[in-house]
Amino acid sequence: MRIPFQxxxxxxxxxxxxxxxxxxxxxEPMASEAENGAPVAEDHSGHDMAAMESAESEEAAPxxxxxxxxEGAKVSFVTPVDGDTVTSPVTIEFSLEGxxxxxxxxxxxxxxxxxxxxxxxEAPDMGMPLPANDNVVHFGKGQTSTTLELTPGTHTLQLLxxxxxxxxxxPPVMSETITITVx
Length: 183
Description:
Blueprint: H1 3-23, H2 31-35, H3 49-58, E1 74-79, E2 85-86, E3 90-97, E4 100-101, E5 111-118, E6 136-138, E7 145-148, E8 153-162, E9 178-182
Parallel strand pairs: 2-9, 4-5
Antiparallel strand pairs: 1-3, 3-7, 5-6, 5-8, 8-9
């Protein structure tokens, strides 16, 4: 049955377009987001929905192939370091060893771009493109530093390298989590 494939293709298209939008300079929402925040549902009247749902559940969810990270690849913070007390705005510098930093969308072996995880309670799904939100900041232009406004208090920071599609490598190239205090 072709409908699950078409639905998976639609979901992948919407997700990739949203991620590319998040990494662009254009801050205006896409037309579909501006209207109601969700893709338009298909009209399935006249279809046997029970049969379609049964066929969908029998098919495995599509698996995304992850880029392979070379042995010894390492991402870390240059500044700040674990335990630092800083003032806002906070300048954060990233370091990458054993791989190249390239912009998102650049398919190149042993490369990727940085994502900064801020105050995340749990690690993101390593098999899916990383979301773009206040807790997962994308550096899709290949940036290796940033200056952020952080509220006073304690914050956790972690770096995670994503491939050209914003998907973490296998194995993940991820820093240790550091804790900083903002005065």
